[in-house]
Amino acid sequence: MIRLERLTKCYPGQQTTAVRELTMDIPAGEIVVFVGPSGCGKTTTMKLINRLIEPTSGRIHLDGTDVTEVNPDQLRRKIGYAIQQTGLFPHRTVADNIATVPRMLGWDAKRIDARVDELLDLVGLEPTAYRNRYPKQLSGGQQQRVGVARALGGDPDVMLMDEPFGAIDPLNREALQNEFLRIHAELGKTIVFVTHDIDEAIKMGDRIAIFREGGQVAQYDTPERILAQPADDFVSDFLGSGAAVKRLSLIGLDAVDIPDWPTIDHDADRDQRLAVAQRAAKDFLLVLDAENRPSGWLPRKAAAESDGVIPLISPLGPRHNLFDALSQMLSFNSSAAAVVGDDGRYRGVLELDSIRELINAELPGESRSDLLQGV
Ligand SMILES: Nc1ncnc2c1ncn2[C@@H]1O[C@H](COP(=O)(O)OP(=O)(O)OP(=O)(O)O)[C@@H](O)[C@H]1O
Q: pLDDT per residue over 292-306, tens digit each?
């Protein structure tokens, strides 16, 4: 665990305090996200934790040890650091960059080689294709991946990540976020993550610290509680008007009962299709393939025709959430979405009405009206 105790930093010659009397516990194995407007002290706090800069006053404890009593070089080997600009050494290969900390730790060449390949695999870059390239031969997203791999190099217990996905386009950013969450689930490190983006904070954080001007924390809590009970107007304004919609993204489909739906076999003959259509209380039947995977929608009115099936693009899985479900329905202009289990097999169908019911059950009255205005 990292404990910050009345941590204060005033840069020489500056009138405002960069970080003021900050007290916070960062539990081991969790992702804590610092979010807030520009210049409110997020990066300064990170640099204080790994002693790239020294505090004016206050203490930082890492697993019970006061970090000011540890040699800064030794400390930085225990703490991985990844930043937006990646900070990769341009004249060193990818492998050399990733090997930076293992080399400082005095590992032998064989162990370093194996570690480099393991980390490239972990961040989704094929070792044989990438280990000998130079940073400028990589896309921005690939450089970010190498930056993350390098920060993981010495197998640190703690990772500090300062806008690691900042300069990435939305699609690659989402892929990197997902990959990073997977790596975190696998390795269970303590992570402090800085971002400007509240949606990224909600997605990534076990806890979020919302910083305000002058290096103070306006609220430090789980995303659920921050969205449900913002501490003050500053936090509400920072969250923006869609706080209730954002809360939907915290309710995973694996935690929701998915209602059953009239289904039909993909190779059912005309009579079977008509029989199911007659019984069904819905306008569409869900078509399942031989493996019980949803493959299309059959409009009830087209049940007599052999080519009436509308192909289903992508069903929702256990890793999707209610926000994804709502987005999919809105973007396909549909009022229902098929849901599958981990194995891709049919689980049920979520309807817009069931999302409304879940909102009624889950959200306090005020947020509910905020959300329903938005739909
Ligand atoms: N080396 C420095 N010397 C003097 N002042 C500094 C220095 N570094 C940061 N500051 C000031 O300290 C305050 C906090 O800066 P910091 O970089 O920690 O903010 P931040 O929240 O990370 O901002 P951003 O989101 O823009 O990266 C700012 O007012 C900044 O101008």
A: 999 999 998 888 887
Q: What is the ipTM of this complex?
A: 0.96
Structural domain range at position 191: 2-240
Query: Atom of ligand 1 at shortest distance to CA of 44?
Result: 18
Closest of 298, 243, 237, 313 to residue 265, by C-alpha = 298
Same domain, 290 and 188: no
Q: What are phi and psi of 312, to 5 degrees?
A: -95, 125
Nearest to 51 by CA among 70, 29, 31: 70
pTM value is 0.76
Cα–ligand 1 centroid distance for 206 (angstroms): 25
> Ligand 1, from 19, 34, 40: best to mutate by most atoms within 8 Å of Cβ?
40
Query: How many angstroms separate the CA atoms of 251 and 358, rounded?
Result: 10
In this structure, are 57 and 174 located in the same domain?
yes
Cβ(166) – ligand 1 distance below 6 Å: no
Question: Is the minimum distance from the CB of 124 to ligand 1 under 6 angstroms?
Answer: no
Whether ligand 1 lies within 6 angstroms of the CB of 328 is answered as no
Same domain, 218 and 159: yes
> Could you read off the pLDDT of 82-106 as tens digits, one per residue?
776 667 899 999 999 999 888 888 8
CATH of the domain at 348: 3.10.580.10
- Hey, CA dihedral for 221, 225, 231, 236, is it positive or negative? positive
Strand segments, DSSP code E, in the chain are: 2-9, 19-26, 31-35, 57-62, 65-66, 79-83, 158-162, 190-195, 207-212, 216-221, 263-265, 284-288, 294-299, 310-311, 336-340, 346-351
Q: Which atom of ligand 1 is nearest to the CA of 196?
A: 25
